[in-house]
Amino acid sequence: AFRWAASLLGVPAPELYIADEVPGGLAAVPIATPTTIVDRSVAGGRSMQEVVFLAARHLTYYRPEHELLFFFPTLPALTSLFIAAVRVGLPELPVPAAIEERVKSFARAIAERITPDAKAELDDAVQRFASAGGKTDLVTLLKSVERSACRAGLVLSGDLAVAARVLRAEKRDIAELDATGRIDDLLAFTASQELAVLREWLGVAARPSMRPPKLL
Questions:
Q1: In this model, does residue 205 exceed pLDDT 70?
Q2: What are the start-end ranges of the H helices in 12-159?
Q3: N or C terminus: which one in the chain shows less Cβ crowding within 10 Å?
Q4: Phi, psi (5° rounding) for residue 74?
């Protein structure tokens, strides 16, 4: 399931390890080689469609543009990291007192590890961000990536009822979205042209019905 989903999503299939208790059923390990810890209940206690949904949703976060959210999946964590990155480019940036120590820690870690080329790119991005007004919407970013991940799970599993069952049964702390919000988005996506195109591309679109032959 993981290898198939990874091939369709254009990401490397991670190394998989099974553990007795994994919050959320799947957890990415913060190391260089893509690695995922799988709860024993996922490995042996679910239908194949459920596993495909979970695998596809999880692997969507391995996309390069999403991978950071594996390790900073909540608004407070992502906000601290974002401000720290901006502060590396703008050292005089004021920071709320409640998160100042965390921001300092992140900024110090970034500064110690960043390469000269990456620092130049960061400085340019920070300057463009400041010139544009210095405003961002991290809530929308988090929610949009999580919705995309759930949609990928639906496309590959092919069953809205399965996706909804999985979502209702879990406690997931990513992206500040509850199960109702995730399911409502999938309901709207089910009726969209985008899903029809994706299913046709995958070769699983419904074929037109044939008329029954005329009776003699």
A1: no
A2: 40-44, 48-60, 68-71, 75-89, 100-113, 116-131, 138-157
A3: C
A4: -115, 160
pLDDT, tens digit, for every residue of 69-78?
988 988 999 9
Segment 31-60, tens digit of pLDDT = 889 999 999 988 787 899 999 999 999 999
CA angle (52 as vertex; 149, 199 as ends), nearest 5: 70
Contact between 59 and 2 under an 8 Å Cβ cutoff? The reply is yes
Question: Rounded to two decimals, what is the model's pTM?
Answer: 0.86
8 Å CB contact between 26 and 14: no
Q: Which amino acid is at 12?
A: P
Residue 42: DSSP 8-state = H
Q: What is the CA radius of gyration of the chain?
A: 21
User: The tokens of 180 are what?
Assistant: 């109702």
Return the DSSP state at 33.
Answer: S
CA dihedral over 110, 132, 71, 62, signed as positive or negative = negative
In whole angstroms, give the CA distance from residue 193 to residue 100.
46
